[in-house]
Design a protein that fits this description.
The chain has 325 residues and is α/β, with parallel strands linked by helices. It folds into two domains: 199 residues, Rossmann fold; 98 residues, UDP-galactose 4-epimerase, domain 1 (Alpha-Beta Complex), CATH 3.90.25.10. It contains ten helices and 15 strands. A seven-stranded parallel β-sheet has the order 3-2-1-4-5-7-12, sandwiched between helices. A four-stranded mixed β-sheet has the order 6-15-10-13. Strands 8-11 form a two-stranded parallel ribbon. Helix 4 packs parallel to helix 5, helix 6 packs across helix 8 and helix 6 packs across helix 10. The longest helix has 22 residues. The chain is globular. Bound molecules: uridine-5'-diphosphate-4-deoxy-4-fluoro-alpha-D-galactose. The site of uridine-5'-diphosphate-4-deoxy-4-fluoro-alpha-D-galactose (UFG) has 20 residues, from helix 6 and strand 9. The site of uridine-5'-diphosphate-4-deoxy-4-fluoro-alpha-D-galactose has 20 residues, from helix 6 and strand 9.
């Protein structure tokens, strides 16, 4: 297959490109390099372009034929989305609409969308399945939900087949250390814990007064390659089942921030200093996926169930002499 990976210069998209090429598929990465990195496009060909410039998309689809599109391009920082919601709606919603239009004009009907647990907002319970009400509490989550709604309409109106994958906390890196997480600024827990282990930053734990056993937030950390494997299954699934589908992706087990720090200490072999800081606005206390639907319907099974193993893959990437941002 020839797959268009939008956002393939980013964290999850670059892992996807590597997996696809490893399986013998060909990959075209479409990325504006606003948050992605040219150096991470090692698998497939990079086409620099912007989803907000329809002419870029037209040129791409006029030139190439694809068997499916995987869409990872998005702004994804909750705090930034609160400060600049317009930026988020433009990039994440208008950009996706442009992409869907270009696909329709090219007669292409297979679309895998990177959605997020952020669509659930402040969940009423710890273990969340897809039937849980969607009530995003920030513009980032709103944009993801809006795209899911658009995909539902496009299935009915234009026969577009899609799978929206609601990621919980993407974590870890390519076990060969050829790609990994590289954000600027870095806001995610595991990279920050490991940066603190390297002495590159002072780790702050945002809130220790949540209603959880140790007072810190609980999340469901899922290895990036497990996410990518679900994308492959999603493409296959659409062949059998047309329509717009939605699946949660998490391992179904939550870990507190302190548990993650302790697991990271075992990986790096030393203690990692941190201080407590006030709660970060918009953080739900507990977010854990019930991914039964993905397991049963897609036949998906996460391979990384041990947090230490996930953190070890992130550490081998971070311990490398990576290029500087
Ligand atoms: N945290 C810290 N210190 C840090 C970084 C994070 O204490 O330096 C805490 C956060 O406050 C949170 C937990 O660690 O309690 C996890 O934070 P992350 O930023 O790693 O991940 P989030 O759960 O906030 O975000 C993830 C995705 C988002 C998505 C969100 C859904 O990265 O894209 O889940 O709620 F929107």
């Amino acid at each position: 297959m020839h797959i268009l990976v939008c956002g393939g210069a980013g964290y999850i998209g670059s892992h996807m490109a590597k997996m696809l090429v490893g399986l013998g598929h060909s990959v075209t990465v479409f990325d504006n390099l606003s948050t992605g990195h040219r150096q991470l496009v090692k698998w497939g060909r990079l086409v620099e372009g912007d989803l907000l410039r329809p002419a870029d998309l037209k040129a791409l689809f006029d030139r190439e034929r694809f068997d499916g599109v995987m869409h990872f391009s998005a702004r994804s920082l909750v705090g930034e989305s609160i400060r600049d919601p317009d930026l988020y709606f433009q990039n994440n919603v208008t950009g996706t609409e442009n992409l869907l239009r270009a696909m329709r004009e090219a007669g292409l009907q297979r679309f895998v969308f990177s959605s997020s647990a952020a669509v659930y907002g402040n969940p009423a319970k710890g273990l969340i399945d897809e039937a849980h009400p969607t009530k995003p509490i920030n513009p980032y989550g709103e944009t993801k939900l809006r795209v899911e709604e658009i995909l539902q309409s496009r299935a009915a109106e234009h026969g577009l087949n899609s799978v929206s994958l609601r990621y919980f906390n993407a974590a870890g890196a390519d076990p060969q250390g050829e790609t990994g997480e590289l954000h600027n600024p870095e806001t995610h827990l595991i990279p920050n814990v490991l940066r603190a282990a390297k002495g590159e930053c002072a780790l702050q734990v945002f809130g220790n007064d949540y209603s959880t056993p140790d007072g810190t937030c609980i999340r469901d950390y899922i290895h990036v390659n497990d996410l990518c494997r679900a994308h492959l299954l999603a493409l296959e699934y659409m062949e059998k089942k047309p329509g717009a589908h939605v699946f949660n992706l998490g391992i179904g087990k939550g870990f507190s921030i302190l548990e993650i720090i302790r697991a990271a200490e075992k990986v790096v072999g030393k203690s990692i200093p941190f201080t407590y800081a006030p709660r970060r606005p918009g953080d739900p206390p507990v977010l854990v996926a019930d991914s039964t639907l993905a397991r049963k319907t897609l036949g998906w099974q996460p391979e990384y169930l041990d947090q230490e193993e996930i953190i070890r893959t992130a550490w081998s990437w971070m311990a490398k002499d990576r290029f500087k941002l």
